Amino acid sequence: MRIENNDTITAIATARGRGGIGVIRVSGPRTNKICEQILGTKIPARQACLQKFKEKDGSIIDNGIALFFKGPASYTGEDTLELQGHGGPVVLDMLLKRIITLGARLAEPGEFTQRAFLNDKLDLAQAEAVADLIDAGTEAAATSAQRSLEGDFSKHINDLQKQLTHLRLYTESAIDFSDEDIDFLGGEELEKQIYTIKESFKTLSNKAKQGCLLRDGMTVVLVGKPNAGKSSLMNAMAQREAAIVTEVAGTTRDILKEKIQIDGMPVHIIDTAGLRETDDIIEREGVKRAKQAVSTADHVLLIVDDQEPYSDSYLESLKDRPKGAPVTTVFNKIDLTGAKPRIKINGEQATIKLSAKHNEGLDLLTNHLKESMGFSSQEKSVFLARRRHLDALARANEFLNTGVDQLLKNQAGELFAEDLRLAQQALSEITGKITPDDLLGEIFSSFCIGK
Ligand SMILES: Nc1nc2c(ncn2[C@@H]2O[C@H](COP(=O)(O)OP(=O)(O)O)[C@@H](O)[C@H]2O)c(=O)[nH]1
Ligand SMILES: [Mg+2]
After folding, report:
1. Cα dihedral angle (72, 74, 80, 81), rounded to 10 degrees?
2. Which residues line ligand 1 (CB under 6 A)?
3. Closest listed ligand to the CA of 361
4. Which residue positions in the chain have pLDDT lower than 70?
5. Which of 254, 360, 348 is CA-nearest to residue 306?
6. Which of 231, 234, 240, 245 is the best mutation target for the ligand 1 pocket, counting ligand atoms within 8 Å of the beta carbon and taking the most?
7. pTM for this one?
8. Domains of the chain as residue ranges with CATH
9. Which of the listed residues 248, 357, 364, 365 should we mutate to test ligand 1's pocket, taking the one with most ligand atoms within 8 A of CB?
């Protein structure tokens, strides 16, 4: 599918502010003309040409490198121009204005990449990887975004699609032959194929899940009574004095956020005011915000002073947390009670003893957080993935499972084939072969301008 865009778009592609170099991009049918008018000369494609960038009257706005790409051999698939001038906001704006008076319009966020997608230069998972690479918060996230951009993720999806197609063809022809004596649908061959596909789903879902964790990470919310040591624990995890720590109860009133990483997984820690009834209006607002924070948590840490008798009255105030978000009770200040650092896990319930002030037992906590999210830093060749990819994979997997049930329990070959088709449809949302327009709009609008 090659889409002809009548509009020629332009944008400053480098970040705002002063810099050594500033790059302006132009893409679309008028690009060649614009290039010639600004430079006052034609330039060969794919060659860095040192040129003067000129106003209409011939006065010079800037000089720098001009790079012209003839479509379809360009990022967007269209004629594209890059002007690399000096990185000052004023000079770049002057150049941008000049390009616009020559018939280009300002590009929307992500519009260059959107054109690349529409012109089949990238599939949707790759296009998303472009934004994720730019936004990557850790090296691990950047490396895996690069892998997705290279098409690793898409290749896995396409392989799975092929396996499903094969299975569908097999099933459909088995249905056609069902009058004959041989029972193709009950055979070992089919079972083998189903088993292989299920395994592929498992591997892929796990890699995608790891990739999603690398991208989005987890949110950990610290709650507990004033003075239990929440802020101290946040500081210990962040390895810096991010929050004020005092012996005065009620020191933290607003919520504080810190971003750390555990083996490359971003962890957003939110330190809150203690949850307690109070007459102080500022603290009361803080308590309200603490409750709000809890409603966004992937994991709640309930901090308790190990010197005090434990009461589970807090758990009541944590019932508004998201479904499935575990609460781990952290008994802090073990240096004062003489307890040893340890972790106890009892089903969903976990308790950890540690000392935030003396940095004892913190590794138990970080490992526990990692495990609770199912994050494994051992998993190699992970590709960056998004929530929507996990959702699509889960839906596809669900269709496969329902279909297999139909086949095994009811010998319903037709229903099985139909479920396989639905599974394939869900998978195609990932690579963008079938993706609703509003979703596309949402995906590209979160890009930066000029990409
Ligand atoms: N001995 C000891 N004191 C601690 C520990 N963690 C925190 N504290 C002290 O407890 C007081 C309250 O700590 P803070 O982090 O402000 O508690 P928050 O109100 O829960 O945020 C401070 O005086 C801290 O120095 C610990 O592990 N051991
Ligand atoms: Mg505090």
Report:
1. -150
2. 224, 226-232, 245-247, 251-252, 274, 332-333, 335-336, 355-358
3. 1
4. 1-5, 177-186, 276
5. 360
6. 245
7. 0.82
8. 9-115 (3.30.1360.120), 134-214+383-432 (1.20.120.430), 218-372 (3.40.50.300)
9. 357
